[in-house]
Known about the structure:
single chain; mainly alpha
Amino acid sequence: MKRVIQRYRFSKYNRFTNGLLFAVISMTALFLCISDIYNKAVTGFEIMFPFMIALISMFLGFLSMFHSNGRAEGSI
């Protein structure tokens, strides 16, 4: 029984770390976007590219954190 519970906790930890990885990527991209705005970037591409990466990364982070692995939540 302890092994089953430990595996379930490890699965939740993996989901959390995947979401955290995507959060770090999106925060880095948003920092690049804001620094480009403050440095008065000439083209919109220099601003929009990190912003789009941040949006995609946030979306993938939410998907990885709340992704169901095919089992019911009550069945460990």
